[in-house]
Amino acid sequence: MAYENILAAAENGIGVITINRPTKLNALNRATIVELSEAFNAFDEDSAVRVIIVTGSGEKAFVAGADIAEFSEFSVEEGEQLAALGQKLLFDFVHNLATPVIAAVNGFALGGGLELAMAAHFRIASDNAKMGLPEVSLGVIPGYGGTQRLPQLVGKGRAMEMIMTAGMITAEEAKSYGLVNHVVPQAELLDFCKGIALKIMKNSPVAISKAIKAVNASYTTSGFDVEIVAFGESFGTEDFKEGTTAFLEKRKAEFTGK
Ligand code: COA
């Protein structure tokens, strides 16, 4: 199937999905989210594909977040819909996929990018990768599961600090937090992930899909719904207008707290 914003190719039982908008640092606009959902679904339904790797094109970014230009004019309702639809189509979908998903984090994984990596079953980073949830610097909150999955992966205190400071951590820090499992040189990232995929493929696919379901069952939380509502509410604030406008105008935001 031909896609506009992503590449998808399967070889030797491994499906590789590459987000391919390098001039926008692979930011997730609506069309990309829909294509990603379709590609994950197609690989999941193909019994020849035993492991899926998701990565970003180019050497700079995995995904630099949701596409700020696309949502900067959204209302409260549109904001809420954005989070709810994205979670359903992509982030929850990947989280619950029966086929194992490895995120190969090859550069910036910010906002929706880190949220996509966290929705994958586990993550491997290249040594230049930088990760963070910068949403509050735009006057909004993480809306694709970040407020839930980050504390699950790194603990509440570290997650709170990362979310409140909107800062980035290095690949090595992410490894020490347990956010990524391994850090490897960028040129070796895909082969390293494929090596792990080969180990997974020696095992029973049906047992693996049941294991994914069982592991996920211990992380069930109603917080995802709270996140969607709070994300939507952010769109009604002056701080959100200021934060997104400042990003698009390439200047520092001046927040008033309104
Ligand atoms: N949404 C839309 N466009 C984005 C984007 C995003 N999340 N992240 C980057 N881009 C675009 C930039 O606007 C720029 O486009 P332009 O060349 O048409 O002006 C292009 O990608 C390159 O980004 P730029 O900011 O020039 O690269 P940089 O190396 O100076 O900075 C980042 C890299 C990742 C630090 C910076 O792009 C950034 O802060 N991005 C936003 C991160 C964010 O807040 N994500 C959360 C969104 S909810």
Strand order across the largest sheet: 1-2-3-5-7-10
Report the CATH topology name: 2-enoyl-CoA Hydratase, Chain A, domain 1
Write out the distinct hetero groups bound to the structure.
coenzyme A
Helix/sheet category: alpha/beta
Number of strands: 10
Number of helices: 11
Name of the CATH architecture: Alpha-Beta Complex
Termini distance?
46 Å
What is the N-to-C order of secondary-structure elements (H for helix, E for strand)? Answer: EEHEEHHEEHEEHHEHEHHHH
How does the overall form come out from the CA principal axes? globular
Q: How is the biggest beta sheet arranged?
A: 6 strands, mixed
Could you name the CATH class? Alpha Beta
What proportion of the residues is helical, as a percent range?
A: 40-55%
CATH superfamily label: 2-enoyl-CoA Hydratase, Chain A, domain 1
Verbal overview:
By secondary structure, the chain is α/β, with parallel strands linked by helices. It has one domain (6-186): 2-enoyl-CoA Hydratase, Chain A, domain 1. It is 48% helix and 17% strand. It has helices at residues 30-45, 68-71, 76-95, 112-119, 146-154, 156-165, 171-177, 189-201, 205-217, 223-234, 238-248; strands at residues 6-11, 14-19, 51-56, 61-63, 101-105, 108-110, 122-126, 130-132, 168-170, 182-184. The longest helix has 20 residues, at 76-95. It is globular, with a radius of gyration of 17 Å. Bound molecules: coenzyme A (COA). Residues 24-25, 27, 64-69, 108, 110-112, 134-135, 138 line the site of coenzyme A. Pfam families: ECH_1. This is Enoyl-CoA hydratase. Keywords: Lyase.
